[in-house]
Amino acid sequence: MEGVVIPSSWVTSAVDAHKKLGIEPTGAKYAALDVADEGIDKNAFGTRHGVVLQTLRQWSGKGSSIFATTGKAIHYCEEEGVPSFLYDADGLGSGVRGDAAEINKQRHTESQGRKRPIVAKAFRGSGEVHKPEGEMVKGRKNKDFFANLKAQSWWHLRLLFQKTHEAVAEGRSYNSDEIISLDSSLAELAKLKVELSQPTYSINTAGKIVIDKQPDGMVSPNLADTVMMLYSPTSMDRGLVVSKDFLNRLQRAQV
Length: 255
Known about the structure:
Elements lengths: L1 E3 L3 H7 L2 H4 L8 E6 L7 E8 L2 E9 L5 H15 L3 E5 L7 H15 L8 E5 L18 H4 L3 H21 L11 E2 L6 H8 L3 E4 L5 E4 L9 H9 L2 H6 L5 H11 L1
Parallel strand pairs: 2-5, 4-7, 5-6
Antiparallel strand pairs: 1-8, 2-3, 3-4, 8-9
Helix pairs in contact: 1-6, 3-4, 7-8
């Protein structure tokens, strides 16, 4: 069993889906960062407001550093009014948390304590699934259906696109909190649409879903990876908010 995770027709239906369905963007704001090396790969950063993907950026990591990339992400979070961001903690992104802590200290000092910290939260796609005893797919526990968090998050994104396509193209009933909308004003929209339909899925020997993001040796879909993290089950469950306890601990560390 093998196939494309998100068919291109579903992606097309999701463009401005909130406008097509008459939905006003409401809810929390989220952000995510996909970290690249200094080669041809690119960093990608995006934000969403509720179900609507509102911003998406990418830039080369050539001649730069993870520290500089983290600084950009924090700057973009400030611009968009987002208090925290998820980052890909597998591989290159492992140093983001430490860099973010240092940058937040600098911001705290330079602003004389007026700027709140922008919290970096790790997303480990290679790690265990979210809510292992839960059932994203009815009749199958998450721990029995997905090989890891990456597979689960891509499948969750697939379900959002499927429900959106059914609502937009087929006129089916829907829950306005269980769709996805890609704002047509996104500068990287054309590239994102291609990347979203790139990953494929298959079933491994244990009977679990696994994801191949680069079938046939294709380039890593950095923009799509960012969107996957943005809408992952962990992003919503963790809330991505800054707690008072975190602020108190940070302030004590400055003394």
